[in-house]
Specification:
Mean pLDDT: 88
Number of helices: 3
Shape: globular
Largest sheet: 6 strands, antiparallel
Distance between the termini: 32 Å
Length: about 150
């Protein structure tokens, strides 16, 4: 089976796992990353018959936007976005070349800006930062439906 490509095509890895990925280099690519997420989840629903709630669609696009924005802002070179659907959730993973983990700030409603990771952590069911041989990868999962049952 062919690996996922960076052209936004949905890949069916197994009957239960779908994946897409993309590389993004400029700040204008943040909108393209959101478009990739929306297109991927639309295919997951329309082509593969998995339910994706409007809330899940919005949350995934917001998380993608926040993670890709941070990667573009704090790391040189491209960032890589991977989206993988399995078991009723979508795993959102963004790799960048900066090995330094992001600062996780305490919530502060008076702070202007720097709320991206708060948003990602609030929307996701899990949150992890992994150091890679080069750079780091930040991963979160989001349920595809409003009621997982």
């Amino acid at each position: 089976m062919e690996p996922a490509t960076d052209d936004g095509d949905t890949q069916l890895l197994t009957p239960d796992v779908m994946m897409t990925s993309g590389a993004f280099e400029g700040s204008e690519d943040i909108a393209l990353a959101r478009d990739l997420a929306r297109s991927f989840l639309t295919d997951v629903q329309a082509v593969h018959g998995l339910p994706v709630s409007p809330d899940a669609m919005s949350m995934v696009q917001l998380v993608v936007s926040e993670l890709v924005t941070n990667a573009r802002k704090y790391a040189p070179g491209p960032c890589l976005l991977n989206l993988e659907v399995t078991g009723g959730v979508v795993q959102v993973s963004v790799w960048d070349s900066n090995p330094t983990p992001p600062s996780l700030l305490a919530p502060d409603p008076t702070r202007i800006g720097r709320h991206g990771l708060e948003i990602v952590m609030a929307l996701g069911q899990s949150f992890a930062i992994h150091r890679e041989p080069v750079g780091k990868r930040i991963t979160t999962t989001i349920t595809l439906t409003d009621d997982p049952a």
